[in-house]
Amino acid sequence: MTTVDGNGAATVPVLSAHRVVKTFGQVRALRGASFEAYPGEVTALVGDNGAGKSTLIKILAGALPPDEGEVRVDGELVRFANPHDAKDRGIETVYQDLALAPDLDAPANVFLGREIRRFRYLHNHAEMRRRTAAAFRELGVGLVQDMRAPVAAFSGGQKQSVAIARAAMWASKVIIMDEPTAALGVIQTEKVLDLIKRVRDRGIAVVFISHNLPEVLQVADRIEVLRLGSRVARFRRGESDVDRLIAAISGAYTNEEEVTAA
Amino acid sequence: MSTETEPATVAAEEVTPHREPVLRTVVRNPTVVTFAVLVVIILGFTVAEPSLFFQGDNFLQIAQNVAILTVVSVGTTFVIITAGVDLSIPAGIVLGEVFSVKALAMVGGLDADADATNAGYILAALAGGVLAGLVIGGINGLVVAYLRVPPLLATLGTLGAGLGMALVLQKGVNTATYALDPVGHGHLVPGVPNLIWIGLIAVVAGFVLLHMAVFGRHTYAIGSNPESARRAGINVERHLLKVYLIGGLTSGIAGFLSVSYFSTTSIGGHSTDNLQAITAVALGGTSLFGGIGSIIGTLIGVWIPAILNNGLVITGVQPYWQQVAVGFVLIAAVWFDQLRRRSRDRF
Ligand SMILES: Nc1ncnc2c1ncn2[C@@H]1O[C@H](COP(=O)(O)OP(=O)(O)O)[C@@H](O)[C@H]1O
Ligand SMILES: [Mg+2]
């Protein structure tokens, strides 16, 4: 199952949504939204508040089932019953609240629910610490000297790094991040963007939501714009600028031929 | 897959938690602090009354006295680390006693003399205590985890219901038995009462389960942030059920041990055992807000009130001062826990 991307090259998206519909009571959060993410690329998902970005991401991550439409992994139709199904397919998600256990140290958080065991029931913390330190080093996350500190003692950026590194360690295909830099200062944001690029360079598809358009333009290889529950524009790196993005977000610009009507 | 990533580009480390002096790290560890308190108390009484207090026999006596509380407190440690609480401990203990003697009666061992009893009788009584504990722990767990009733109220409910049930089953009258004497008063190892070994087994089992097993890791995670545990694929409800089962189990076993030691049920007793266990756990540095705690801390927390009591009696001070002192030490310990959290958490 192969789709043809905007440049005419035959590439299969590693993760895609096709004409997804999701309704919450009276609210039509997604109205035939489509989305594609490719291996080794950072795809930014932008749009106004309430455009349906978080809903779309939850569907891609298996946290919500779509009412209509398809989700595909490597072109293959999938039906995620829960986030675990998505994880089994190599799709990891970093939610806005990070979901770290503050009293546990970084290795315990990284391996939570997937502990390395010995004698079946016991955990092998030394090995988990070793592997976490190795992965953090490889990803350029500092913190290797703080392997024993509870993550509660970390700054916001450090916590974010732990959460992203955890996802990166387990994701074989896709990492999805909902506003990973929203709560961070300038320096911390820069570190997280670095981390995103480093993960991408390992061949992983990175999907992230951000309201910071300069940041999006800086790091994204592709940008998809969601408006009122459907995709209104797609840009490759260099095809867009802040003004055009704002135009697309606010409805003044589109480059999608078939925007599903509300 | 070792890639040639260049660490230099990322070495611009932002504010890393700075290395702390050893002393501060030590003081921040609640177990070390309570252990220091215990040592100071022991030193104080030793100086005051060395010939009576600092004696092997005296410590053996204390160890035997605290054995039953130790067993219960190990279970309570798990419950409190999940940010829960188990007030139903007295009910678990009393029902454990009642089920033990009922089981003894069923196998015809109730009236066996201390020297005519056998392992079958003892195992039957133990099974009774275990069953009682699992029933009350199971109800606690189901109500807390699946019905989402706050643990304080859920276990307050089972406390009342369990104590009432014990009175109903016994028709308000205690049952005496000497069939369990080998447990409560025997010495498999000469000079060391069996109860001490049983307390020790509970501590070791609790230590392995809490600190070395994946089960313990998940217990901390749930107490720390249940949502993170859930997203990590941990079945939080089922785990909480298991934790309350452990709490109930240790209470039920404590009931069995209590009959063994006192040679009778005590359906009107044990009313402050829940508070004693919670006090021991909190003294030991386990956080009532969940996510933090240790079995060794609990062991120390069991010993502080016991040593105080014993030392005051020996030095001829009114032992009632123990309650006063423990009350204040408890408040200090919880205050300390909050201070530690506040200075540690960064957002
Ligand atoms: N669980 C929910 N129940 C009801 N309405 C929801 C729910 N989740 C999202 N919505 C609604 O769906 C729309 C899209 O929300 P969301 O996907 O969070 O947008 P975004 O992340 O782009 O800001 C909003 O109108 C929001 O109020
Ligand atoms: Mg959102």
Would you write up a description of this structure?
The complex is a heterodimer of chains A (262) and B (347). Chain A contains eight helices and 14 strands. Chain A is α/β, with parallel strands linked by helices and 262 residues long. Helices cover 31% and strands 27% of the residues of chain A. In chain A, the strands form four sheets. Chain A has a six-stranded mixed beta sheet, sandwiched between helices. Chain A has a four-stranded antiparallel beta sheet with strand order 4-3-6-7, covered by helices on one side. Residues 1-9 of chain A have low confidence and may be disordered. Chain A starts with a strand and ends in a 12-residue tail after the last helix. Chain A is globular and about 55 Å long. In chain A, helix 5 runs parallel beside helix 6. With 347 residues, chain B is mainly α. Chain B has one domain (55-337): ABC transporter involved in vitamin B12 uptake, BtuC (Orthogonal Bundle), CATH 1.10.3470. Chain B has 15 helices and no strands. In chain B, helix 4 packs antiparallel against helix 12 (236-262) and helix 9 packs across helix 10. Chain B is globular. The two termini of chain B are 34 Å apart. The structure holds adenosine-5'-diphosphate (ADP) and magnesium ion. Residues 24, 27, 29, 47, 49-55 of chain A line the site of adenosine-5'-diphosphate (ADP).
